[in-house]
Structure formats: C-alpha cells, structure tokens
From TrEMBL:
This is uracil-DNA glycosylase. PANTHER family: URACIL-DNA GLYCOSYLASE. Residues 54-214 form the Uracil-DNA glycosylase-like domain. GO terms for molecular function: uracil DNA N-glycosylase activity. HAMAP family: UDG (MF_00148). InterPro entries: UDG_fam1, Ura-DNA_Glyclase_AS, Uracil-DNA_glycosylase-like, Uracil-DNA_glycosylase-like_sf. SUPFAM superfamilies: Uracil-DNA glycosylase-like. Its EC number is 3.2.2.27. It is an enzyme of class 3 (hydrolase). It catalyses: Hydrolyzes single-stranded DNA or mismatched double-stranded DNA and polynucleotides, releasing free uracil. The lineage of its organism: unclassified sequences, metagenomes, ecological metagenomes. GO terms for biological process: base-excision repair, AP site formation via deaminated base removal.
Length: 228
C-alpha cells in the first residue's frame, strides 16, 4: 500500500468515500504520486495529504473553502488549503486573505498562517488537487485527484443542512456545478493570488457573506478570528 492511500479509516468520511479506492483511477493516481516521491520532493508530506479530512469531519462540515493545489515551496503545504504551519511565513495569497478578512470583518492578522482554528468550526479546507511536485505549480493536475475531490464535494452537497461553498478562482468556481443551490449557498470570487486579487477578490466580503448565509438557515456563524 503506497503512502497516499487514504488515512480516513477513523473518520466518518470513510464510508462515504471508500468506494473511490477500488476504482481504476485511484490505483493509477497512487502509482503516479509514489513515482513522483521517488524522484523528487512532493508536498505535502505523505502523512499530511488528507489533513483536511482528518481535522474536519463530514458531520461537522458547514463551510467548504476550495483551493487549487498545495503550496509548492518547501515547508509550506500541510494538507489544508491556503494554510501554512506556525513559523512559516504566510504566502502572498494568504496575506491577501488576511487583508480581505480585516476589510470585511475587522479581524486583525494573527501573526502566523495556520488556519486550523477554522477547521475546528466545520470549515473544510480542501484543495482540488492534494499533492504537487516541489517548485512546479499544477504538476499533479489531471492525474486523478480532481476525481476524488469532486466526490468529496458531491457527498458534502448531499447533506440536507445548508453548507456554504467558498469558491475562489476559476478552477474552484467551475465546481459550482456540483452544488445544489436550492439547499446550499455558493460564495465565489476571483482568487486571492496577487495576480488576480484586484480583479474581484478584494471587496468580495466572503467571510461576512458566509456567516449571513449560515445565520439565514438558523446555523451558528463561523468565528473567523485566528488565535495569535
């Protein structure tokens, strides 16, 4: 069994996703990632690939924040979209997320880039692609991860209680087609990358809009503050 085989057996995602692990694409994907790890650095480390599913249970998921692929710099990716561990400088996209969070809700940046506080409140920090080769953005696209993460989105969409899907950037926004907006809410904008943040991310107020959608359904809002 290769390292990327899902470590979700102790979570409530397993019965919902285990059918994927017997499909041909899954074996091909794992063989590809194993070969990549044998010849180059791949991020995040194998034991952190499924961190989003470990930290936010299916039952608890109230918000899905969808990224693209993991950070491709050494020491950055740890299995949660946009997040980096404490002690790692927040990348530019995350700095822009914090800027919009301040403009939207007046929340000051925490002084680090670890977003685990959000996961504990039911925010699933999911990337569409779960691994990447060092220094090569998009290098693991089209190998099967998107098939798997689309299934994650489908099972979340099956929840009867409202979920807010935060979709930033064109690849994430294309996933809106997987969301039943008669039950759920899509909040979408440009990506927070410095290349696109000024094209509709800044000023989009995603955090207050998410909370408004949750409260409209009688659900508790997310406390977007991150402990320093």
């Amino acid at each position: 069994m290769v390292p990327e085989s899902p470590v979700v057996g102790t979570t409530d995602w397993n019965p919902l996703l285990r059918g994927e692990f017997d499909k041909p694409y899954w074996a091909e994907l794992q063989a590809f990632v194993a070969a990549e790890r044998a010849r180059a650095e791949v991020f995040p480390p194998a034991d952190q690939v499924f961190a989003a599913l470990h930290l936010t249970s299916y039952a608890a998921t109230r918000v899905v924040l969808l990224g693209q692929d993991p950070y491709h710099g050494r020491g950055q990716a740890h299995g949660l979209c946009f997040s980096v561990r404490r002690g790692v400088a927040p990348p530019p996209s995350l700095q822009n997320v914090f800027r919009e969070l301040h403009d939207d809700l007046g929340v000051d940046p925490p002084g680090h880039g670890n977003l685990e506080a959000w996961t504990m409140q039911g925010v699933l920090l999911l990337n569409t692609c779960l691994t990447v080769r060092s220094g090569a953005a998009g290098s693991h696209h089209g190998k099967g991860w998107e098939t798997f993460t689309d299934e994650v989105l489908r099972v979340v969409n099956a929840k009867t209680e409202r979920v807010v899907f935060l979709l930033w950037g064109a690849p994430a926004r294309r996933k809106a087609a997987l969301v039943d907006t008669s039950r759920h809410v899509v909040v979408q904008s440009a990506h927070p990358s410095p290349l696109s943040a000024h094209q509709g991310f800044f000023g989009s107020r995603p955090f207050s809009r998410t909370n408004a959608a949750l409260e409209e359904a009688g659900l508790a809002p997310i406390d977007w503050r991150i402990p320093a």
